[in-house]
Specification:
Elements: H1 5-20, E1 27-29, H2 31-36, E2 44-46, H3 51-68, E3 78-80, H4 85-93, E4 98-101, E5 112-114, H5 122-134, H6 150-162, E6 170-173, E7 179-180, E8 183-184, H7 190-197, E9 205-207, H8 214-220, E10 225-226, H9 232-240, E11 244-247, H10 251-259, E12 263-267, H11 272-275, E13 282-286, H12 294-307
Parallel strand pairs: 1-2, 3-4, 4-5, 6-9, 6-11, 9-10, 11-12, 12-13
Antiparallel strand pairs: 7-8
Length: 308
């Protein structure tokens, strides 16, 4: 899998499609992916740091698969979602026949390389790779369908009970990892909006800062219920009971869309046509270099809450 929460979330329909086709998935990704995808029951192996360790892990998985299925090595048997040269090299050194996109001169390392579609949403890029692997096209999914594990729903309920919060609250994600073409993806008006506008709706506001974001959450979003150190699985379960999520272009926004929670995705430099959150409850505000004004976001919040 890829290395960002949004990428893994957008790749979820393709993973589910492979599982529905009868494949017994073994996933390799970042440590947080195990928590995020726990509701699906797929084994997730944490991606080691070094080339030697990664190849050793892939070789072990190859040996286990071959022991269970003697025909495993005679066909395409891996999907390489990353575009990097190194990821294709790791599959090749492990003796796996992977399908992946032709990129960075790595085609000779793959069992099969396919062109990466240009100018389409990233979900469609992953879906296209799954179609090539399965040898069949299919319409793009309408929803991502992220499932939450029972233990994560229990943990979310315990947090809500401890803070006296009932379902129907608002969640915010005022942080954003990375940049878009070197530009900050954080809505400049977010703090003022939370302090001055959201209280008029009479709903509790929750924020789950990630590692290193706790101090900023306390300084700029002190009116919200602060829930630090929440794993992604529990975060997703918290989103399920929210009336609305307001987020920058960031992983938790994709998660909200993935569990079916209404999302107001506040964009500035990002191009939603390529990376926007995906789902019927998603409303995109701004983007392509223009931030929305606070009044437009306020009206969008009011419209969503009027329907809830």
């Amino acid at each position: 899998m890829r290395n960002w929460v949004g990428d893994v979330t957008l790749g979820l329909p393709t993973l589910q499609r492979l599982a529905d086709a009868g494949f017994d998935l073994r996933l390799v990704g970042k440590g947080w992916a195990r928590d995020l995808l726990a509701g699906h029951g797929w084994p997730v192996h944490v991606l080691p740091k070094t080339l030697r360790e990664r190849v050793a892990l892939l070789r072990r998985l190859r040996a286990e698969a071959r022991a269970a299925d003697p025909g495993f090595t005679r066909r395409l048997n891996a999907v390489c979602f990353p575009y990097s040269f190194s990821s294709a090299l790791e599959f090749r050194l492990a003796g796996l026949r992977a399908i992946g996109h032709a990129y960075e001169g790595r085609s000779l390392l793959l069992g099969r390389s396919v062109p990466r579609p240009a100018g389409v949403h990233e979900l469609a890029v992953y879906w296209h790779l799954g179609s090539a692997f399965l040898g069949a096209d299919a319409p793009l999914p309408q929803q991502l369908g992220l499932r939450t594990a029972p233990r994560h729903r229990e943990e979310a309920q315990a947090l809500l009970t401890a803070h006296g919060v009932a379902p129907g609250y608002l969640m915010i994600c005022p942080f954003a990892g990375g940049t878009w073409d070197g530009n900050d993806k954080t809505w400049p008006a977010f703090a003022d909006f939370v302090a001055q506008v959201l209280p008029t709706f009479g709903r509790r506001v929750l924020v789950c800062p990630g590692p290193g974001e706790e101090d900023a959450a306390r300084r700029h979003f002190g009116s919200a219920v602060l829930l630090p150190n929440v794993g992604l699985g529990t975060y997703a379960a918290l989103l399920q009971d929210a009336a609305l999520m307001i987020a920058n272009d960031t992983g938790p926004g994709h998660m909200a869309a993935a569990v079916g929670t209404p999302l107001l995705s506040v964009l500035g430099p990002s191009d939603a046509a390529l990376w926007g959150a995906w789902g019927p409850g998603v409303q995109l505000l701004g983007g392509r270099g223009a931030w929305p004004d606070a009044a437009a976001v306020r009206d969008a919040v009011a419209a969503v809450l009027a329907r809830s």
